[in-house]
Amino acid sequence: MVYISNGQVLDTRSQSPWRLSLITDFFWGIAEFVVLFFKTLLQQDVKKRRGYGNSSDSRYDDGRGPPGNPPRRMGNG
């Protein structure tokens, strides 16, 4: 695969698959994943506190509650 680094086009076939920068790239990839994971958790928490929750959370906030079952029909008919 071809990629660009510092304005130069490089070919991955010329690099060893076990280069030292692979370890640091892997570390920073994991670190960025963890940061993004917790950012999304915190953003969801902030949205709920501000009242931006999804519609299923706020459907019955007016105190009425969910609708009950319809009345049963008595008799044959």
From TrEMBL:
<keyword id="KW-0812">Transmembrane</keyword>
<feature type="region of interest" description="Disordered">
    <location>
        <begin position="48"/>
        <end position="77"/>
    </location>
</feature>
<keyword id="KW-0712">Selenocysteine</keyword>
<keyword id="KW-0472">Membrane</keyword>
<dbReference type="Pfam" id="PF10961">
    <property type="entry name" value="SelK_SelG"/>
</dbReference>
<dbReference type="InterPro" id="IPR024491">
    <property type="entry name" value="Se_SelK/SelG"/>
</dbReference>
<comment type="function">
    <text>Required for Ca(2+) flux in immune cells and plays a role in T-cell proliferation and in T-cell and neutrophil migration. Involved in endoplasmic reticulum-associated degradation (ERAD) of soluble glycosylated proteins. Required for palmitoylation and cell surface expression of CD36 and involved in macrophage uptake of low-density lipoprotein and in foam cell formation. Together with ZDHHC6, required for palmitoylation of ITPR1 in immune cells, leading to regulate ITPR1 stability and function. Plays a role in protection of cells from ER stress-induced apoptosis.</text>
</comment>
<comment type="similarity">
    <text>Belongs to the selenoprotein K family.</text>
</comment>
<dbReference type="GO" id="GO:0032469">
    <property type="term" value="P:endoplasmic reticulum calcium ion homeostasis"/>
</dbReference>
<protein>
    <recommendedName>
        <fullName>Selenoprotein K</fullName>
    </recommendedName>
</protein>
<dbReference type="GO" id="GO:0006816">
    <property type="term" value="P:calcium ion transport"/>
</dbReference>
<feature type="transmembrane region" description="Helical">
    <location>
        <begin position="20"/>
        <end position="42"/>
    </location>
</feature>
<dbReference type="GO" id="GO:0005794">
    <property type="term" value="C:Golgi apparatus"/>
</dbReference>
<keyword id="KW-1133">Transmembrane helix</keyword>
<dbReference type="GO" id="GO:0005789">
    <property type="term" value="C:endoplasmic reticulum membrane"/>
</dbReference>
<comment type="subunit">
    <text>Interacts with DERL1, DERL2, DERL3 and SELENOS. The SELENOK-SELENOS complex interacts with VCP. Interacts with ZDHHC6.</text>
</comment>
